[in-house]
């Protein structure tokens, strides 16, 4: 079997190391060891840990599965709910650890790195827009309570989701997830 | 003027260093330099950076001003709104940096330290309970939309607030704050 490129191995290892340990706790050495590549090879592919972090954040975007939000074979609100349920299930499976890498890097790195802040900003903007498009579909289908603005509600729900992940991790319990689904889908969008 | 105790100077410096740099980026040396105390004196007062982090998180609690939420001279919902507005103003004044230390340590440290996770858990639980008590007052005064459970809505609002801070930092803009106030107070609680 052909070996995937060294760059690709570094990116995959970085994604895992950054997500489990955080940005500052994951050193270049940890990443190259996890990737099984010589430490010296790192700088053939990346200028700095910071540039690798931006690539890893972009790669992490696939985990959020924004494509599922565009699947018109499911009604918009159940589709949005399933989107968050799938992300919840992943966190529960990991014993309430890791959280969302966008939120983690937003908390730990955004103040200190323009490129990382930019990548987190873009990721949130894309995610929020995908949620807003789903809510706009719901509105068109008459399934959104009147007076709700899809873009504002999308941004609010995404913030609530990010905070819910922080709380679920601190509690190591699904209570915060239950609250999110009850209030978001049982009250705000009901 | 009497010099405050060395322990106190270390705690104050740690609070500032942890909040601005994060847990892993703020070393014991950074903290003792900022406190103006010899590095060796650190371990006379604390077992580890981790134990200091727990003390710093408890100290940070004062910044959240939960006492204001119990001030019955203001009607409950305007009081709750003013609580978040004051925290927003602080973040705006700091150029959208720092965020909430509970959320930051929840994102960066909770997975890796039981004591820090416990301190973040307790802090969120206390804050959520104070918001719930304010919402329960609103309900008693007939100012809460029917069907809203104060405890659940409090936990949801706190999550939304924590996520809003992450978003505002990533955007360096007050848009996420505007969204929070519009949806929380203009829709959910209206």
UniProtKB/TrEMBL annotation, chains A, B:
HTH tetR-type domain boundaries: 4-64
Species of the source:
Sphaerisporangium aureirubrum
The record's section on Pfam families has: TetR_C_13, TetR_N
* Protein name as annotated: TetR family transcriptional regulator C-terminal domain-containing protein
Keyword Nucleus among record annotations: no
What are the DNA-binding region positions? 27-46
**What UniProt keywords apply to this chain's record, in alphabetical order?**
DNA-binding, Transcription, Transcription regulation
> Which SUPFAM superfamilies does the protein's record reference?
Homeodomain-like (SSF46689), Tetracyclin repressor-like, C-terminal domain (SSF48498)
**Record keywords: Cytoplasm included?**
no
Q: Organism classification, top ranks?
A: Bacteria, Bacillati, Actinomycetota, Actinomycetes, Streptosporangiales
